């Protein structure tokens, strides 16, 4: 799917006459898709466990609305308001998680109910109107950038520095991991391939930093996203809890009989989804600088599509967080590219649907050929 | 007798594996022809070629049925010729009725509208032929495995079957239902229906087969004629593994110590019907280094007993006491049971034992990830080492530990399950049908592993429906019937007859007739 992403980017780069990869556009890409990517991370965990969450759009809207009431009507400072909103999201996740994990009502039904319930509550709470504007500090989450600090020939110095620092950390990590594997006498990549892989990724990182540095530098939201992606990828790949999530998705009965507390795992996956839905709602509201009754519309479908394009299986047990991000980016780039080319929203929707079908179909076809 | 079926020079290759190489099979009309071989020998593949699952063109060689060469494109083609295959995993829809299942894909209909009268009448006729006394409208999910098997056979009969292929038909049946099935096959023989029987149960094969073809590594080894005099099981085993297996069970000098695990007054009610007792006041004990067998008919409650002990994984209103090393313990959930050193190797390894889409190493480490983790983080390198240790120690045949378990043969899958539970470092292992669906050679390996575990001082509870296995492996045997322990026998006094006597004893002291109640 990475190849698909790169191909699509190149395609639209050409079609849009080179606008796609311009610093302004790339920055916009990140800002426009951040709230879907956040949802996709949580949704991937839900799909891996074999469930689905249809309520995330409504929950995002609801939490966005409550946060607006807190910050604008009740004048609560934005940091406590954000924390309370995330807590609210987690509680909503716990509510749905309870019905799904312990009462064993299918997730489809519970979250469908949630979708209706929280959309209704959003409209009630907002009394059908929008609330705006948010305090500056809050808006900065979505629209702000890291301070420039210094310039390197009119490019953002901190950004370039971050790129280099990240590359260094990456190279060190890979090198160390290779040394450990060698000490166990496991097979490692031949030195040539290893160096090539490091070079390719280092180039990608710095190219990306360079592009950003030529506009306004690193958006705040990118930092948030980066931390989330790194943290969740690590948990899923390397921790016991991550293993348990995959086990529950792979075969719940066998997992239970192996000592995995399957109901607890499912419960926390939904609590997590609730919290991330809340975060997504906050990001979106900050970006719009308003909480509206129509916020979050169809977010869940975008998140679900991102996960499946990114390699999730409808049967559970398969999928990765980076996969979800790539899936989300594929859709984001397509949206962006199609807009740049001048295709109307109606066309965009239709094409997105087709791409989802073809992308997943192609993936499954490949798996069957090799299986 | 005329030759009904001849398969000549069948060769079938999959990427990287030659499953069948120049296989020949000749089946005479009206005979019961057994097809034997170790797991992976090619029996199922050969039958899939015959039935059209692997269509003409995907294999080399010829199929000649009733004197005419056949080029089947799919299952329907072979069925039209009267070749019907009943798979080991029954192809029934649980929530449809017996009648609906029998005529599925073969409906009694006119222009798309089902004629229910003809369907029900037809079903009654077929059920009569197989000796199944059930209402055609009864849902299949309410039947026990033995009866479901009969529904499958009725379904085959409805297709005007000339050649019936049965793949491990008695694997999941108890002694009584197995006998019933074999009697049915002999009945069919009289009616002119030819059968091909694939089975690992050698005593059944030597009882009913007229001819036995043995496959090994995708090749035909030999065909034995059993018409004149029955072929001995030893002779069959020799053909299958290529050596004389004088002992089907490895020898062992038991070194038995103190009681390590005790169950007192254990009572469990049915999960869906909380007014029905499935385990009734069971008392049992296992000592260190001892292999204790639990024998019983299907429905006796053995698996319910084991699973309810193992952290309450089955059953409602569980009561009774458990003692480990003399101290009372309570297992509120599975992970507590594991932590106290109890392991349960479940009956159905594909559903309850393995995560098939995962690889060998991840399956092995699952019950005890703490052992290879630092805090919450799994040490993947240590995981690889541990998995390798088991691969070698248990001789798991696989290209590597990153192989997905779904690709392993039954015997090797079972070895992965055993590895997983050994990795959990238990003191007590409850093994539920550990050699089901596994060939003779792999069984021996598993018996060796079980002996090794006992020699390490662990207590083993062995649940099995195969009486020879119980008699060959166990130091002491409890017999369960209708949820109660009806007998406890030492190895010295145990015979198949004594065990069967206890297995069929009911609460009223009468012998049991049909299998008891709902599915096990």
Please describe the topology of this protein.
The complex is a heterodimer of chains A (about 375) and B (about 525).
Chain A lengths: L1 H14 L7 H26 L7 H18 L4 H25 L4 H20 L9 H8 L7 E2 L2 E2 H27 L7 H23 L6 H19 L1 H11 L1 H6 L4 H27 L10 H11 L11 H21 L3 H26 L1
Antiparallel strand pairs in A: 1-2
Chain B lengths: L2 E12 L2 E12 L3 E6 L5 H9 L8 E6 L2 E3 L4 H6 L2 E4 L11 H5 L6 E2 L2 E2 L1 H15 L14 H13 L5 E5 L7 H16 L3 E5 L3 H7 L2 E6 L2 E7 L7 H9 L17 E11 L7 E11 L3 E6 L5 H8 L6 E9 L2 E3 L4 H6 L2 E4 L3 H5 L6 H6 L7 E2 L2 E2 L1 H14 L16 H14 L4 E5 L7 H16 L3 E5 L3 H7 L2 E6 L2 E7 L5 H8 L17
Parallel strand pairs in B: 3-10, 3-11, 6-9, 9-10, 15-22, 15-23, 18-21, 21-22
Antiparallel strand pairs in B: 1-2, 1-4, 4-5, 7-8, 11-12, 13-14, 13-16, 16-17, 19-20, 23-24
Helix pairs in contact in B: 4-5
Textual characterization of the structure:
The complex is a heterodimer of chains A (371) and B (520). With 371 residues, chain A is mostly helical. Chain A has 15 helices and two strands. Chain A has two domains: 2-144 and 219-370, ABC transporter involved in vitamin B12 uptake, BtuC; 146-218, no CATH class. Chain A has helices spanning 2-15, 23-48, 56-73, 78-102, 107-126, 136-143, 157-183, 191-213, 220-238, 240-250, 252-257, 262-288, 299-309, 321-341, 345-370, and strands at 151-152, 155-156. In chain A, helix 2 (23-48) packs across helix 13, helix 4 packs antiparallel against helix 5 and helix 6 (136-143) packs across helix 12. Chain B folds into three domains: 3-241, P-loop containing nucleotide triphosphate hydrolases (Rossmann fold, 3-Layer(aba) Sandwich); 247-341 and 426-520, Rossmann fold; 348-425, no CATH class. In chain B, 32% of the residues lie in helices and 27% in strands. In chain B, the strands form six sheets. A six-stranded mixed sheet of chain B has the order 6-9-10-3-11-12, sandwiched between helices. Chain B is globular, with a radius of gyration of 24 Å. The two termini of chain B are 42 Å apart. At the A-B interface, helix 10 and helix 11 of A face helix 10, helix 11, strand 20 and helix 13 of B.
